[in-house]
Amino acid sequence: MNPLRIALLTHSVNPRGGVVHTLELASALTALGHDVTVFAPAVPGETLFRLSPCRVLYAPITLSQTSTVAMVEARIQAFKQTLMEHDAWSFDVLHAQDSISGNALAELRAQGLIRGFVRTVHHLDHFDDPRLAAWQRRAYEDAEQVLCVSDTWAREMRSTFGIVALTVPNGVDIVRFTPDEDADDAQIRRRLGIESGPIVLSVGGIEARKNTLALLEAFASVRRALPGAQLVIAGGASLLDHDAYARSVFKRAAELGLSIGPDESVVVTGPLEDAAMPALFRSADVLSMVSLREGFGLVVLEALASGTPVVASAIAPFTEYLDDSTCYWANPADVDSIATALLCALNGRGSRIDFEHAVPALLARFSWAESARRHVDVYRQMLETRALAIH
């Protein structure tokens, strides 16, 4: 079959889950022989956190917006302008990974400038602002085809919103994420102020959705049992405003007697360079993924591929692909449950994770190459249906 011209659109240049998904998918589609272009909004001089083997086009924006609504609107308009400048209609597939780029494509479709677009819903957020809520809704309602990275969200889209969505999961790069220590690992640990541990790692920054406050409370219990333990909270680049929640976390840390900073009991790294992440996973004694809501939880697979045990929320979508042989379970609404699961993982108590058989079998189920092939199947079916509708 002829290769497809595919445009993948992502809302940011920062290492968020949806952006990682976009770049991994772009690489895998390129490896299959397709002509892929990634579109991303960026301020002048800003670039994606990771190099891509395909063409990357930046939609120019400024940092002058004073509100989330203004920021989102500016990015939608930047996407539209850049897409028009690069003949959006000439792509076989236009694929939005988020609500911002989805709205740009929805507007172009409403204007008759493109035939349609694909939208991947990783997860949905709750917005009190009616305009943000409307933008989020339009980005999936106006899509020609909606995809989700988990069956959980595909069911949610159907049952709650009446949208028929297909599941096309994430993958994991088992070449990049490996238990084998690199020569730079020790230097990265020293730079970040990570000591001998044990180390509890959380990836994704400080957010209510990530359940950081409950994790902090649980970690205080871990520290009482293991006084040398450190909690490392990595990442956190986000377009949404989490400052109020972060302040509540810092305030509670002080009340619990937990100091924050390099070489302290809690290390908050902020956004990190991409090259540091494999070392960070390998340095951890356990990954805590006790989120209240996730689209998939890609870092779970990355941690397991790095040989690091995982404590995961005993809720979907984690329950779709994990079991007792691949993680320790915790009730994300119960601080004691989180603390107990972390201590079991750190002390090797209870049902141990089977890194010899179960974890390799799990990782084998999720590859970016397979994800790309499934995406292409969806793209071609959509194009075939579109062609039939013309005749």
TrEMBL record:
Residues that span the membrane, as ranges: none
UniProt xrefs under CDD domains: GT4_PimA-like (cd03801)
InterPro entries assigned to the protein according to its UniProt record, in alphabetical order: Glyco_trans_1, Glyco_trans_4-like_N, GlycosylTfrase_MSMEG0565, Glycosyltransferase_grp1
Glycosyl transferase family domain residues: 186-353
Enzyme kind, highest EC tier: transferase
Protein EC: 2.4.1.346
Source species, domain of life: Bacteria
Keyword Isomerase: no
Gene Ontology terms for molecular function: hexosyltransferase activity
Keyword tags: Glycosyltransferase, Transferase
Record bears the keyword Ribosomal protein: no
Domain Glycosyltransferase subfamily 4-like N-terminal span(s) in chain numbering: 16-174
Protein name (Swiss-Prot/TrEMBL): GDP-mannose-dependent alpha-(1-6)-phosphatidylinositol monomannoside mannosyltransferase
Gene that encodes the chain: pimB
